[in-house]
Design brief:
Number of domains of chain B: 1
Strand content of chain B: under 5%
CATH class of chain B: Mainly Alpha
Strand order of the largest sheet of chain B: 1-2
Structural class of chain B: mainly alpha
Helix content of chain B: over 70%
Largest sheet of chain B: 2 strands, antiparallel
Strand content of chain A: under 5%
Distance between the termini of chain B: 30 Å
Structural class of chain A: mainly alpha
Oligomer: heterodimer
């Protein structure tokens, strides 16, 4: 932890050194989480030296596995960006799941009717519809917070339940939007399908369980960069971050806090809705239709990923990849790691490792304590102090 | 002498806050009253359904309100001492699992009931160490607790039960049954316990030295510290009490209702409990009132289902009711309800 004076240093070297230091602690945190996980595996009577390699193999072991992992990363990047955008305004959006569902459903309804349009128009319209759906749903808690002081943690969770009840009814047994099967709509028109970048074994047409990688992945990365740019290089981003740091000071400085609160929530919902829209229009695993199983647990997982990324939109991309890799490797790990009596290592271990990763990365004072680092005062992620008084 | 004075003022203050609460909650209370009147009226209609409807609504309300009541009380203890606890959901799930596991392995449901609150306490200890000693952001700590508890319970469940053909049945806690007129009235043990604990909690928080210190630490830890109160001790113990109550709340799902554990069986009750805590203005009695309102909305859905079973959209409306009510209530109330001043802020001793 030596702090060199960098006045005479080569800027490129300096950048490299700072990046390395910023990466050092998160990597140490991930490593520590894996070590603790290994202890749990050992205590449970399994061999971590079998479990971890097969986890890696399950996530990246072959072209099709890499393909699946990247495809699973795509929706996580969008929802994580959604959580981060709200965080930057000091808002804790737990409602990404509901916003994703509403966005996906709206995208499906619009996408079904895109038969007459060429793909170049149909795809963007479908995705945009999903974005608007998510944004509108998220604007509700934003407005409730801005005008009535209702805390967004509670309202977004409640709106998650309300969203799933509404969508459940709309595609339920007698639901007006129900397709051929229950819990799903009809598939969107072929013109509205998001084109694939890489289709390992022709899964888009063959019905194999592999997921082809669609353009949503590239767009997710671009959106991540745009969000970074908005937050740190535009006046709006400055206002958002000021409100996030200190709403009273922001108000004193003449920023319209209510407006920023609503905008931040709406953009957050827009990103979550985009995630849902791309799943509907791009993911053949859902047969290009809205399915009620879409997006479950995405809200909480993306909060976890956002914490892992320390609220940085660019870091969200590798963090989402890590989470998706852990999840897509889990079943291989469960399958390979067996005791002599045939008992398999439960794949739910992954949730525990994820929780450990977050705590070690988001709260690095524990790491500093664990490894006896001298500087105890680490960079802390501060989301919210209590329930926030609205004055 | 001075202590007695403070105590008396606190007493006056707590009765005043109760009155204030009743005044502010008058619209929900009036709504509940109107609905009860409709039910009584409906009971004497043409298809002479006896008073059963009303009785079953009361039973269902008390039953559905149970985990929310205990969860809100759990949150009240923690937050009164200045520690935000959004990990209640995870602590509930842990309690639900360990209660069911011990019940199933030993064949004794009572042992499960004893172990469950302490398992919630163990998880709460993690939250306490993270947020008090390490001063981790309490929302992060709570989120981690929720994810961790979900993984831990699912992992242990597969390890203990799925991979072997062990019996998953933990047995169920008894219910007390009696009849009001023709209508059977049935209420679970945990539901009765919850009501008792609300009054115990009210007494502790507003009428004991411990409660006074807890509130002082939640409002102004620096001043409490200056007066000789051990801020860290108060916070640790209150978070542990919170975990104990949340663990107990979890047993409602596993030991009282079904008699086994299911992955993620607490279905967001911990979060509804937090809403009830806020609605109840961080007081046990207020939290109970709010929990009863949520329980009533859930009970209404169950009761209406048997009446209007065919009409799908009506079912949807009543299903969404508890959540909509939460949002509406928060929107109307939070602007006026004030959290403990120091809630969410780690204390650094100077």
């Amino acid at each position: 932890m030596t702090v060199a004076t960098a006045s005479s240093e080569n800027p490129a070297l300096r950048w490299l050194r700072i990046t390395a230091r910023q990466l050092g602690l998160p990597l140490l945190g991930i490593f520590t989480a894996l070590v603790v996980g290994a202890v749990v595996i050992l205590i449970s009577g399994f061999d971590p030296l079998v479990a971890y390699p097969s986890l890696l193999k399950g996530a990246f072991g072959s072209a099709s596995r890499v393909n699946n992992t990247l495809a699973a990363t795509t929706p996580y990047i969008f929802t994580t960006l959604a959580v981060i955008f709200a965080f930057q305004a000091g808002l804790f959006n737990i409602g990404a799941e509901g916003q994703l569902k509403i966005g996906a459903l709206v995208a499906a309804v619009v996408g079904i009717n895109m038969g007459g349009l060429p793909a170049i128009a149909a795809v963007p319209i479908t995705i945009a519809a999903g974005c608007l759906g998510g944004a509108a749903w998220a604007a509700i808690p934003g407005a409730l917070k801005a005008f009535a002081g209702a805390h967004e943690v509670i309202t977004t969770i409640m709106l998650n339940y309300i969203a799933s009840i509404i969508t459940g009814f709309l595609v339920g047994a007698d639901g007006p939007l129900r397709g051929k099967n229950m819990q799903t709509t009809n598939p969107v028109s072929v013109n509205a399908h998001v084109p694939t970048i890489f289709d390992y074994d022709g899964a888009a047409n063959s019905g194999s369980t592999n997921t082809p990688l669609h353009w949503g992945f590239i767009i997710a990365i671009i959106v991540g960069i745009i969000i970074y740019w908005i937050l740190w290089k535009t006046p709006l981003g400055f206002e958002i971050r000021t409100v996030g740091l200190n709403p009273s000071a922001a108000r004193y400085a003449g920023i319209n806090v209510a407006r920023i609160t609503i905008i931040a929530m709406a953009v957050s919902g827009l990103l979550a809705g985009m995630s849902g829209a791309f799943e509907v229009a791009g993911n053949p695993n859902y047969s290009y239709q809205y399915s009620d199983s879409l997006g479950s647990n995405y809200g909480f997982n993306s909060i976890a990923i956002a914490l892992l990324a320390k609220n940085n939109p660019l870091a969200a991309i590798p963090a989402a990849l890590l989470f998706a890799a852990l999840q897509s490797g889990a079943s291989q790990m469960q399958f390979d790691t067996v005791k002599a009596d045939g008992t398999q290592l439960p794949g739910d271990l992954i949730s525990m490792i994820q929780a450990l990763v977050i705590i070690f990365v988001a709260a690095d004072q524990i790491l500093r304590w664990l490894y006896r680092m001298r500087n105890k005062q680490g960079t802390q992620v501060v989301l919210s102090r209590g329930w926030g008084k609205m004055e | 002498m001075a202590q007695a004075l403070v105590d008396r003022e606190e007493k006056i203050d707590s009765t005043r806050s109760m009155r204030q609460y009743l005044r502010q909650a008058r619209w929900p209370l009036i709504a509940v009253a109107i609905l009860i009147i409709i039910f009584i009226w409906r009971s004497f209609g043409d298809n002479a359904q006896p008073v059963i409807d009303l009785v079953s609504i009361i039973t269902l309300t008390l039953s559905f309100a149970t985990p929310i009541t205990l969860g809100a009380l759990s949150g009240t203890f923690s937050e009164r001492s200045g520690v935000v606890n959004i990990g209640i959901e995870g602590m509930m799930l842990t309690g639900a699992f360990f209660g069911a596991m011990v019940g199933a392995l030993t064949g004794n449901v009572w042992l499960g009931l004893v172990v469950a609150p302490f398992s919630g306490m163990a998880v709460a200890l993690i939250h306490a160490v993270l947020s008090i000693y390490f001063r981790v952001d309490q929302i992060i700590s709570g989120t981690v607790i929720n994810i961790f508890a979900f993984g831990l319970t699912a992992y242990l469940y597969s390890l203990v039960f799925t991979s072997s053909d062990r019996n998953t049945d933990s047995g169920k806690l008894p219910s007390i049954e009696f009849k009001i007129g023709l209508a059977p009235f049935q209420i679970g043990l945990i539901s009765i316990l919850a009501v008792v604990l609300i009054f115990v909690g009210h007494y502790i928080i507003f009428y004991t030295t411990w409660g006074l210190r807890t509130r002082a630490v939640g409002e102004n830890p620096r001043a409490a510290d200056t007066a000789g109160v051990n801020v860290f001790q108060i916070r640790y113990i209150n978070v542990l009490i919170s975990g104990f109550l949340a663990g107990l709340a979890g047993t409602y799902f596993s030991l009282q209702v079904v008699g086994y554990f299911k992955e993620g069986m607490t279905v967001g009750s911990g979060f509804i409990a937090l809403a009830a805590m806020i609605f109840g203005k961080w007081t046990p009695l207020g939290a109970w009132g709010a929990a009863l309102l949520f329980g009533f909305c859930q009970g209404l859905d169950s009761a209406l289902q048997s009446w209007y079973g065919q009409i799908e959209w009506l079912h949807t409306v009543t299903q969404a009711l508890p959540y909509v009510v939460t949002v509406v209530v928060l929107t109307g109330l939070v602007g006026r309800s004030r959290p403990p001043a120091a809630v969410g802020q780690p204390y650094i001793k100077q």
